[in-house]
Amino acid sequence: MSALATLLKRDLARFLPGTASGGTLLPLLFFMAVAMLYPFAIGPNPTLLAQTGGGVIWVAALLAAILPLDRLLASDVEAGFFDQWALRGIAEEMVVAIRLLAHWLSFGPFLMLAAIPASALVGIDGETLRIVEIGLLAGTPGLAAIGVIIASVTVGLRSGGAALSGLLVIPLAVPLLIFGAGSLSTGGEGGLALTAAISLALVAIAPFAGGAAIRAAREG
Amino acid sequence: MEACRLTATDIACRRGDRILFAGLSLALESGQALQVAGANGMGKSSLIRILAGLLRPFSGEVERQGSIGLLDEKPALDEHQPLGEALAFWSALDTGSAPLDRLGLAPLLDVPVRYLSTGQRKRAAIARLMGQEAQVWLLDEPLNGLDTDAVALTEKLVEDHCAAGGIALIASHQRFELKGMARLELAEFAT
User: Fold this and answer.
1) Which of B8, B19, B21, B145 could in theory staple to B118 by disulfide, Cβ–Cβ 3.0 to 4.6 A?
2) Residue B44 in domain
3) CA gap A125, A123 in Å, rounded
4) Complex prediction ipTM
């Protein structure tokens, strides 16, 4: 069990915003910047902003989740960490599962916090904010899982990996977006429940898909 | 140290469309050392990775008994962290401790890994390898970037490792001084 704790500690030190060794606030600033720009682009129409603001928060959250992908796994493969873990009998699946947890912790809760000031910027009311927050709680683990899967599939790519992984994440994230942001217009619990269900399935698949992709890249 | 063994039977290695070598067999018992020699691109690193179990051989079988330690061109140390913390990550996973003073690393523990020179990185990787206390050492170009003193030290460390009952397999095109070490010319198995 201590191997798990050691790996998680290293991952958190690398990914949490504000930690000395490179975790970054940039995705959060990006998220806030989108929320800030939106009213400028749409114009000061309170009804229109209130109707569309929740959806914009969702799109901004999705894009912010893509930003850290290029350094999620590739650097560890290049530096030989996965080789050394494999020799010590630490399965790729376990490393990827821990990485998924650390990746989510480094942006999910912070996005939920940032959604509060963002909701003021796009002018949505308290009830809508509540649904957005529950939706983010249900949806961001799924976004993190998609991110980890794509990051592990693009691990072997020498160049252009960052842009390509961003492009690959978007279609996979469509179901989460439809049900997550869709729950805003219907106000329904059903949409949120479906978002959570998709997230759960993705989180369950991610360690196995990711582990297999990293092993395949090693053979290449 | 418990008995260890490393055997490869009739292995071949394919990279892309080329068969790099074929029909290679070797058997190493506790205390033995072997240098795999060959020019660049002969497949020394691929052989090491096959023996480590990180690469599937195109044909043939590898049997390992005992824990495997790998030293190659990738140090597996966090670039942005001070050397001390980067090594502490591995010592939390491994059992042993590395002789940092002997390797001349003690004054460097506060220096971020990205500022270390090639030779210092290599010595840091040797420290990681020693901390692992693996029985079978697979060393891919262990002398690259090392100065004369560090070369002598590395040879001594490998000698001690074998004297303690470990296995060492050294892939290098350079001279590696070690008493009683066998030599395998990879060129003989090239196709």
Assistant:
1) B145
2) yes
3) 7
4) 0.93
Domain count, chain B: 2
Residues B60 and B146 in one domain: yes
Model pLDDT for residues B86-145, shown as the tens digit of each residue:
999 999 999 888 889 999 999 999 999 999 999 999 999 999 999 999 999 999 999 998
Domain boundary among B132, B148, B169: B132
Check: CB of residue A6 under 8 Å from CB of residue B89: yes
For B87, other C-beta atoms within 10 Å of its C-beta total 24
**Rounded to 5°, angle at Cα A10 from B107 and A25:** 105
Of A106, A165, A117, A114, the closest CA to residue A141 belongs to: A106
Cβ neighbours of A2 in B, within 8 Å: 92
- Write down how long chain B is: 191
Q: Which residues are B65's β-sheet partners?
A: B5
Chain B contact for A81 (CB, 8 A cutoff):
yes
CB B116 within 8 A of CB B83: yes
Over residues A44-86, the pLDDT tens digits come to: 888 888 888 888 999 988 888 888 888 899 889 999 999 999 9
Mutate to test the interface with A, among B79, B85, B93 (most CBs of A within 10 A): B93
Q: Which residue reads 């030599």 in tokens?
A: B183
